[in-house]
Amino acid sequence: MKLTFNLVPSLLDQLDDYVRGTAVDPALALARAPAAGLNDDERLAMLDLFFSVPYRTLIAPYPRYAALFHKRGGRGPDGTYREALNAFRPADVRDLQVWFHLAWSGGTLRRRPEVKELIHKGDSFTEEEKNRLLDVQDAFLREIVPIHRRLQAEGIAEIATSPYYHPILPLLCDAASAREAVPHLPLPAAPFRRPADARWQIRRGLASMERRFGRSPAGMWPSEGSLSEEAVRIMGEAGVRWTASDEGILKHAVEWGGGSFHRELTYRLWRLEPAGETSPVLFFRDQELSDLVGFTYATWPAADAAADLLRRLRGIAQRAPGGVACVILDGENAWEHYPHNAEDFLRALYAGLTSASDLRPVTFSQAAEAMEVGLLRRLRAGSWIGSSFTTWIGHPEKNRAWELLAAARQAVERRLGPGPGPGAEDPVWQAVGAAEGSDWFWWYGDDHSSEQDAIFDAAFRDLVRGIYEALGEPPPAELDQPIKQPRGRAWSEPSGKVSPTLDGAVTDYFEWLMAGQCDDAAGQGTMHQASGLIRRVAYGTDGRALYVRVDPGQGEIEALLRSLESGRIVVEMTAPAPRRAAFAIAGGKVQVERTEGTAAPRFAAGRVLEVEIPLGADDPQTAAFYVVLTERGRPVQRLPRDGHIEVSCREAADWRV
To answer: What was the pLDDT predicted at 369?
Structure first.
């Protein structure tokens, strides 16, 4: 097998800090503390953080972890889990400390005897057992880089890297490049154009990897697949021999250059003509294949998923003989959603690839050396998310963060000159580089949110404040003001019993009158500019079943699903027990495609989708769920945007009486 692993230097720095003990992760500190000695604030922090794993694959399969999840319940009126504190005895807290770290242990760790024994035991862990698990994890941190060095030495894996602190390179070069994809995008009031910073991030990333792996990487994955003509030129000048992005970037590049795009062009290699001979070779990923691995195959049997991917690759080989199909995805995101961390799927896939006579796995450098390269006349700046940069700039909160960073960067230029030198180990430049990282801007705005929004916001402002402090200047008072504005709860509770007639239409004024609602209009449900496909989710219960109604933005449910490629509406229930139902077009009409945890629910699809899901538990207190609209297995809209909707079943029982 041949693989290419892209490692971000600043992440490897963090692993080094944990190994040396110069940094302490809050989750590890909370886990190390004796369960009986934690105060209320520490236990609240655990209830916030220690269930932050995918419910279906890493909580539901383990009875004790699932029981603790349901014991926690929902947030109280103050937005915390304070009401659950008294329910968590020291033994519960200790089991939670262990299960959170067991859940995050991958396949390699789970084969260690100490970890296998704890998974088999399941509950009633001791402090000694807990600390043994954490010791095994600590020791494993020391093995991660050596494992990758060995894979490189054996010729199995090529090691590539990204700019040091994972910035969006085109926005560092010139934030105005965002308007190439979205011409009227609102930009920060203070222009940001710092190509010298982009050069430093690239060169420092390459030097860091050379120090760790004994050679400078040939390739660089630009953060979030973000390319522009200037960024490509700067990478080439730094010695980067290949880079990559998404097929959407190639499509716009071909069309900008006056050509006509067809998908077979994705399987060729390219250089940017204006950058000349120093241009790195450009790869463009097959979006469909990558998204199948990243978002769809997790719910398939492993052998079926591997066979389907191999079949698709053979189809590409017939249409584009001699080409290369690039499957590129965030490796840290996909595998936790697969059973067994995708080990079964990957073993089946690798076995199929290495035994095939008509397919050959190659590293990116091997492909770059063996294949002919075409020329692109133009390259429209963009990322692998929507071929634009709206995830990182354009929203008032994102723009505000850029303005605060620009002001600090100007203060640095007044004192230290226009740009960092080759090494630039000065704490000022370290703070600047870290503040330029992409994820700060990702979390601002309406498109992404998490329970740690306030922490991210404070951390970004602390970094910018640190720039001024390192310069010996007083930080501006505006850095004390949060950028991220609090969002209200995205859903309302039912006000009475709901027991509709399932006919795909709201035929009676009263049948959904008492329902709760989660609306898309408030900006709480969108992902990647998919707002309005689903307008509203209504819901309620009669104590025996959960009823969910999905309202499309326009037209009927069937038209909504047909407007998407392999479109699905997924109702994911997390309480009182995990259940899942996916609705798609099959046989010319809307049908239940796949269910998990229960028999196929009753439903009707017409103007709206109405679903009845039996609660199936004795006297359940709470039902919880969310709705996801997917295209080709990739989420395009989620209601609510994060977390889940909670419906009280106890009140429904009172209403029924």
So the answer is: 96
The rounded distance, in Å, linking the Cα atoms of 601 and 316 is: 38
Report residue 92 as tokens. Answer: 């519960």
Please, are residues 240 and 280 in contact by the beta-carbon 8 Å criterion?
yes
- Token pair recorded at residue 469: 């402090």
Contacts of 341 (CB under 8 A, 6+ apart): 106, 107, 335
Tokens of 270: 């390219």
Q: Which residue has the tokens 């297995």?
A: 633
Q: What is the DSSP letter of 295?
A: I
Q: What percent of the chain has pLDDT over 90?
A: 71
Query: Rounded to 5 degrees, what are φ and ψ at 598?
Result: -165, 165
pTM of the predicted protein model:
0.78
User: What is residue 596's predicted lDDT score, i.e. its pLDDT?
Assistant: 66
Task: Check: CB of residue 132 under 8 Å from CB of residue 98.
Answer: no
Closest CA to 253 of 221, 225, 278, 277: 225
Question: For the segment 214-256, what is each residue's pLDDT rounded down to a tens digit?
Answer: 999 999 999 999 999 999 999 999 999 999 999 999 999 999 9
Show the CA angle centred on residue 247, arms to residues 244 and 253, nearest 5°.
90
- The distance in angstroms from the start CA to the end CA of the chain is 64
pLDDT band for 198, please (50, 70, 90 cuts). Answer: very high
Write the DSSP string, 322-376. T--------HHHHGGGSGGGGHHHHHHHHHHHHH-SS-----HHHHHHHS-EEEE
Q: Within 10 Å of residue 554's Cβ, how many Cβ atoms? A: 11
DSSP 145-211: HHHHHHHHHTTSEEEEE--TT-B-HHHHH-GGGGGGTSTT----SS----HHHHHHHHHHHHHHHHH
* For residue 578, pLDDT beyond 80: yes
Return the bridge partners of 167, or none.
Answer: 437
What's the pLDDT at 595?
64
C-alpha atoms less than 13 angstroms from C-alpha of 501 in its C-beta half-sphere? 8
**Residue 433 near residue 463 (C-beta atoms within 8 A):** no
pLDDT above 60: residue 526: no
Give dist(CA 573, CA 549) in Å, integer.
Answer: 14
Q: Which residues contact 239 (CB under 8 A, 6 or more apart)?
A: 206, 216
Answer whether 579's CB lies under 8 Å from 587's CB: no
Largest CA distance in the chain: 79
Query: For residue 640, is the peptide bond before it cis, meaning its omega torsion is within 30 degrees of 0?
Result: yes
* Environment class of 256 (CB within 10 Å of its CB; exposed 0-12, middle 13-18, buried 19+): middle
CA distance 592 to 615: 18
Q: State the residue for tokens 């000349």.
A: 276
Residue in the block written with tokens 């959960």:
546
Contact criterion met (CB below 8 Å) for 182 and 380: no
Alpha-carbon Rg of the chain, whole angstroms?
26
Residue 489 C-beta-side C-alpha neighbours within 13 Å: 15
Amino acid at 584: A
